Amino acid sequence: MADTGQHQQSQQSYERYQGGSPEAERRLFERLAQELMKVQEKNRRGAGAAVPGRAFHEKAALGVENARLRFHDELPDALRQGFAQPGAEYPATVRLSNASGIRQADGAPDLRGVAVRVTVSTEESHDLLATNHPVSHARDAREFVAFAKAMAGATTPLRKAFGLLVKLPLAVGLSTATRMRRNVRAAARHTVESLAGETYWSRGAILWGEAGPVRYLLRPTGSATTAKPGSRSRDPQYLRRELETRLARQDVAFELCVQRYVDAGRTPVEDGSVEWLESVAPALPVATLTVPSQDLDTAEARAAGGRVEVTGFNPWYTTDDFRPLGNLNRARKAAYEASSAYRHGLRFVTEEPLRNKVLGAPVGAAFRLLNRAVPWHKLPLAASLLNLVFLRKVLRRFNLIDTDLHEAPPKAGPVPAPIDERLRTARSYDGTYNDLSAPRMGAVGAPFGRNLKPEYRPDLFDTPNPVTVSRQLLYRDTFLPATSLNVLAAAWIQFQVHDWVNHPRHKPGGKAVEVPLPPGSTWHNTPGGPAEHVMRFAENEGIELPGDQPPLLFANAASHWWDGSEVYGESEQTAAYLREPDGGDKLRLEEGHLPIGQNGIPLTGFAESWWLGLSAMHTLFAREHNAVCDALRQAYPSMSAESRYHTARLVVSALIAKIHTVEWTPAILATEAIDLGLHTNWDGPPQSWLNKLGLWLLEAHSLTGIPKTLPDHHGVPYSLTEDFVTVYRMHPLIPDDYEMREHRFGQRLETLTFNDVQGRAAEAAIRKTGLADTLYSLGIAHPGAITLHNFPRALQRFERDGEIIDLSVVDLVRTRRRGVPRYNDFRAGLHKERIRRFEDLSEDPETVARLKDVYRSVDEIDTVVGLFAENPPHGFGFSDTAFRIFILMATRRLQSDRFLTVDFRPEIYTPLGMDWVQKGGMKSVLLRHAPELAGLLPRGASAFAPWRQVPPVSGGGHAGG
Questions:
Q1: Are residues 339 and 433 in the same domain?
Q2: In the annotation, is 498 catalytic?
Q3: Averaged over 321-336, what is the pLDDT?
Q4: Domain presence at residue 100
Q5: Is residue 813 part of a domain?
Q6: What whole-number distance in Å separates Cα of residue 346 and Cα of residue 418?
Q7: Which residue in 498, 618, 646, 660 is the catalytic one?
Q8: Lowest mean pLDDT among 212-216, 325-329, 649-653
Q9: Is residue 298 located within the same domain as residue 434?
Q10: pTM of the entire predicted model
């Protein structure tokens, strides 16, 4: 086998990348693959089929698994490469078919094709694909897809003519369209009496080890070349019938031949429309493919044919020594993978109606013009909601940046292993296989994406000094409460963030960040450690990038999905440890509380930064899981413990997503427009004909709630983003002290500092106070406002993993080092006008003075500082700039997740589970596990609004009448 360097050299010698680079070409191919799935959908509709078929070669005449490929004993020395050895024989799967993407009668003009999978071993196979015309109608992938789009859904002669004579010239130009029509007609006018008598050409080149590029062909041998005259009849299945008859009496055999590359002019690799003439590149016989004589009308043969029909053939299912070459072949990897995934219901297409495209462009432009004078939140309700729809469209188009490390150029590989059937109905532990066609998407270890192009400025890491920024602008002088919320809202968002994001850190004592302190300052970096002139804390672990790229890519140690991983864990091992022993369906609890580990912190999915509020949330939802298991056991007695456990995981995770969408977010963004918009995300729009008409005309996708739609990644693999992490730095929500009160008589139990309720102390506090009184105490207290001068003092000197850190400084440093743009660039990247003066950011004179004192210009303002300083819209708990990341990513977390879209259905969740989610909410969770709180929850508001306080009763007894 040739080494990698030789392969790369051969690739560079024979191939040229469209767009100038493998990565540019890859992006083009991804777009073309999306277009091919749309072709499949149009073909499905045109044929009136219930499910999509193949993009091409939809109708098979033969599918067998018992063919054999045997290489000749006299194989030329130069062609003895890899599995191609003299006398070597391998089992093969063969499919013969018509080329159209729509099923039609065999007599209709069409190309014919063959797909062969040669199985060398359990680890190695080779897919060979060919059609019965020596050249392609398209030079490259762009032309190929343009032709497919022009002919999509063309089920009648009139539609076919319209596609060829009108659509195709518009797409590729008149001269190219003429050449393509000529090639297609030459191929399709050929009369086919028997598929066993046809010659099939690869048209594209493949590498044949050290022998270099070849094209291959399969030509009939012996009696297969003769077909019974006049066998073609009006029978629409005559090609199948002919093969049945033929195979009943004899083998069908083809000779595999290869044509070797000569030069770029006569045997081009990149142009599929040029024939490799045998006078230039002789066809050298190398092997014989034999389909043995058999009865195709047996149950065994029909079953084999059915298995072949669901097989996805792809020329890239091979080894690197035999990888496909050329533009058309490179495109086939992405195209065939997408086509196969779409056909098998693993990928999805959501097409924008033409009316939405036509009307959306001018309306979107009008809103962009209007917003220069009037921001969306100052418009009338209906207009502001519609404005948000178009703002989200703009953000989806410009603010989803793919950071995944893709294959470019594509690589050969084995046939993918079948999907574990259990993963079709249950979430994996690590987030794999949420998207069944891209198993690693959003999984543990997948990189954070970006909403804005990162800016790597090591020269500005310490400018201005982050410690100075913290002390001047973030330090909590006086607690500033968010009076519309309770502390449960603060606990909730940390509970959620622990599910979503986790940047791994180097171990203490390893790679660290050092922040110089202002003159005259010192800091103790470890408990009992010496006073130092720098702050030091563990650096994040990054992903190494090739070449000279800056270190700006980080993996998420949590899964990116909304999967309740903070409760259940990120691995099968952790999840099993948290369950009751012997494979029980419930989570381990000790008298209703989480069991405590050896370090004094509870055993749960994610327990970093542990404090009383997190303990309450984790305890509630561990109990909720167990309650769902009890209900499932009663409703479905035959359901196994394993099924109950995974179904309960689905139910609890979906309920958490719903609570966040329709309860927590409207509580912190307390405006009617947001409340309606978020309920529309989950339940669909209000029952108003005017609202529905507007959406039907401009954004039909929003006519139902997201759980009733199909998954849609909007052209970029799903992930959470570094910018998302930045806007969820909401530490000011945490108070520094807590008054614990008894819920029945309103008596004060004790007053505690944050240090009294964090870390190991948290469990002692919640068990002493009790869950109900803890919830009540947090429910009647206000969190801090998300603003400047309100960072919790306790978190500015906070012990974690043996380090003493100032979390406000860490927030600033992390944001800078991860390449998140500074505030002014951040807001401009989110389509807001740049600020020109410090006064544009804040109306508070003291804040403006401090900003001027700390920063040399408005362009230097830290993102976190700017988001806290910005005057938010009326009712908002955080800034409009932060909200833009939210409006983009909040819907994306639902829309990309198949368990919250296409698989949010009774067959997966059970009818009871669906009902549990649809009728449930935070109040139902609270009352299920603390029913004594019923009279204290707010009326007409979410559980995250301040609760009713019980006035203290003297003596602790009942009040008299």
A1: no
A2: yes
A3: 91
A4: yes
A5: no
A6: 12
A7: 498
A8: 325-329
A9: no
A10: 0.92
